Amino acid sequence: MKTKKMFLMFVISIFILFPALLVYAASYQDFIPFLIDLPGWKAEKPDGADIDMAGVIAISAARKYTSGNKKIEAAILIGQMMMGAWNIGYQEGFKMETPDIKLEVKKINGFMVFNSYEKDKSSGLIMVLLNEAMTEGSTGAVFSFSFKGMNGEEAVKLAQKFDWKKVKAKVEKIK
Prior knowledge:
The chain is α+β, with helices and mostly antiparallel strands. The protein has helices at about 1-15, 150-160, 165-170, and strands spanning about 40-45, 45-55, 55-65, 70-80, 95, 100-110, 110-120, 125-130, 140-150. The protein has one domain. Strand 6 and strand 7 (about 110-120) form a beta hairpin. About 25% of the residues are buried.
């Protein structure tokens, strides 16, 4: 019993001496509630992963949806590695269009949004930058929305049904 009390006192003293250790430890399960049901869509059970590779932490939560021939996958991706998922060249106003593909970066509801659309396949990817001020050592985060069987405008409207602001607020609690 005395050993248990001594250990408890040791743990408490560590947090008193090093308060930075009192951080919010997140799990993919914390982000599952943000992968909502969409009216008119059949949703699979959400899943995810907590990854620790030699101290590099990543969190992934995802959910797939179908409606007739249309398919989407929404994912919340968090971690230092996400800093590389957002191309530094993707600045507001970036546009590129060919006969096959359309790329665009613009602000939507205060978030930088990358929209890639393959015209002949009616498919693409929307990435929402949840942590715009990503710096070395910060927690990078993106909301990823891949789609098939619809145009880019329809996909953006569906992606906006997810509450990016609440996801961002949850990400900001992670240290």
